[in-house]
């Protein structure tokens, strides 16, 4: 399926069919003084409060994607020299052939510099972006060929990012099959001290096909939640889900020049998880990748139904503010906190759903979970919860790759979020050496107007 993206200021059309890009829809929207107000996820996560402590300065985030365009004013000075693995495309890693990679960079490191500071911000505006461009595998003759092209480029891309010094590796693309080379590259990157985040995919309301590299051991699989704290309908679910982040009605820098887009999907959620890691790592530069991830898990907003994790949001919704306020003991430097690496080493047939390693604390103090699509522990939105009406042509910006024709398993049951209340304590261990975080903070009120629903997306390019 192909669509075109109309960008404001220049109205540039771009082809938008690509294998495995996990950002589902984008609409061009004019930049104006209220751009920051439209970025509800920054208010909900209390970004400006966090920026008083950390902006992600000193942390490089690799964006393995479609390229990153450094001409966007909100990304000026944020984009490093990277590497181009897209031998099928003209230009280099600074040429974004879909606009998707630039959008991920905007969500992570946008500075809001456009129009004197009225542009779009990323969650970690002090971080830098290492662009690593992959080929356009969505135009392959069939799914198997697309998977081959994707994985053959992804493996060296991951190795390059780790060798280039990226602390965080963001992969908002996917294929329906993994590969031994990618698995080895992930292990290599972990050994080099990097953290890897990948979107779990956007066919949760369709085939819910397991996607890679999110399901690869050692990669943190990220799901998307909406303003109501529930898993979005499109966000895939299963044992590959490790955590969740906002991924609905997102506004961020994208495309080229003064591009601004409205998007949704697990791509966006992955970018925010990566940015969260950058914020924490910048504050604690001597921590290892394992310690940063462990603190993210220990301060996460866990599920609400009494278990350690569920298939909808994993161990919960990422909360970098709590991690910055009172992270507790980061635990062992050399022990990966999620169970999938150990399970893979033991030739486990499927990703484990057991608790992550949290050091010495008791598992009885952990989370709430299975079959819950929501979590009230990240933020509570007060008043009218409505999406902002964003001006611009509604487009399908990217398309998720082919799904299987088999019927998906039943989605985890929805639960309504708890009513408004104080910002709660983290769901993971709170007894020594994992102290309770600071006092509750009042959640922000919503800035916005009437809601505008997202369209239903069409089938993938091979479906």
Overview features:
four-stranded antiparallel sheet, globular, alpha/beta, 463 residues, disordered C terminus, disordered N terminus, Rossmann fold, seven-stranded parallel sheet
Model description:
The chain is an alpha/beta fold. The protein has a single domain (23-395), classed as Peptidase S8/S53 domain (Rossmann fold). The protein has helices spanning 35-38, 40-44, 47-51, 100-109, 114-117, 143-163, 180-191, 266-283, 289-298, 320-325, 340-345, and strands at residues 23-28, 60-65, 83-84, 128-133, 168-171, 195-199, 220-225, 243-246, 250-253, 260-265, 394-395. β9 (250-253) and β10 form a beta hairpin. α4 (100-109) packs parallel to α8 and α8 packs across α9. The longest helix is centred in the N-terminal third of the chain and has 21 residues, at 143-163. The radius of gyration is 20 Å and the shape is globular. The relative contact order is 0.18.
